Amino acid sequence: MHYKIGRRSLLLGFCALVTTYSIRRYINFTVDEEKTIREHILYRKEESWSQIKYNLTGNPVNHIAFIKVPKAASTTVQNIFLRYGDETNLIFALPRGRFGGGDKLTSQFFFPPPKNRRYDISCAHVIYNRADFSRALPTDTKYIGIVREPFSHFRSMIRFVHPKSVLDMPGENPVLEYLSRFDKYRNKTSISDIFCNKMARYFGFTDDLILKMDQPQIRKYLLKLDEEMDIILLFEYLDESIVLMRRILNWDLRHVLYGKLRVNKVEDNRLKFGTDVEKLHKSYSQLDYQLYDFFAQKLKEKIKDQPPDFYDELAYFRKTRMKYDNFCLFSISNDDNNASITFEGSAWNRPFVITWEHCKKLYIHCVTFLDMLIEKQPVGSPE
């Protein structure tokens, strides 16, 4: 009797695995479908993770260019690079200004690297220009970006910045009023608005492309970006994106664990984002939507093409990240600077210990972290 039940359970488990793999492999993901898939990915027992032999070989990637798009989880991802580079004594492109970036990756906006050195990592705010980046970074640099669903990105930007140009609009819906008057405020020879096509601008789309909306040229530039970027992360699939990134960088998994930073908490009741606002935003931010749709599809295709162990790693990553996050929040809130926690090894990481010092850097403000690195890193002479 027990033997029959065992066989039946085994058969059902195998069928579930096959079904999950088929769904994951052949459907075109949507947010709702992804939620369904996530409910099925934990198909390796938790206790078996530590039994898989550590299999990272080769050298980790130490040269990275990250296109830091504001309000797209980019500060969270930047913190990953800051912690890794700080621990491994890499050379950062450190911004001169207090706003944490510049228009170009040049000595006008960034402290120059030490003599006879190039930057190892660029992860501050800067507009992507391949020629500037190529001069400043080594030839084997991995290029990484991040995008977010454009209307969600717009909402987050407005709520975070609380712009006077929007809040000073009359009426009960200043966002709608602002977008309704957008043509009156937009300079026809340049793009002065900071909330429309924000992502496209960070990825190097020119004012000319934004104004003329020349579709063949836009497509040409998207294909150029696709060729030049090693991966563009997706805000809505952040964990999946980071696991893919870890594989590209050949890093130990502990280096890509993160804590969520700079999350909007204060709401303004006057800031409303209904259907009419969304339609207007889409009409003025067409490049952001094209950019997002293009690279969202690319990332989903990468996910579909991953071997089954990707989903094992994803489940392990989520569990480990939550454990790390909970430990740090508890130790910081209790001011316990003697606290530590040990994590077992797995196929994706060696055993490691997290202390109070690690936790402080997990949640440190990005400007404070950059200031700390400016004090620490030797600076060369301007070109």
TrEMBL record:
MF terms in GO: galactosylceramide sulfotransferase activity
Quote the Gene3D superfamilies the UniProt record gives.
P-loop containing nucleotide triphosphate hydrolases
**GO aspect biological process, one term:** glycolipid biosynthetic process
Q: Where would you find this protein in the cell?
A: Golgi apparatus membrane
Its membrane topology, per UniProt? Single-pass type II membrane protein
Q: Can you supply one Gene Ontology CC term for this chain's record?
A: Golgi membrane
**Pfam families linked:** Gal-3-0_sulfotr
Q: Which UniProt keywords apply?
A: Glycoprotein, Golgi apparatus, Membrane, Signal-anchor, Transferase, Transmembrane, Transmembrane helix
Family label: Belongs to the galactose-3-O-sulfotransferase family.
- What name is this protein filed under? Galactose-3-O-sulfotransferase 3
Give the source species: Mizuhopecten yessoensis
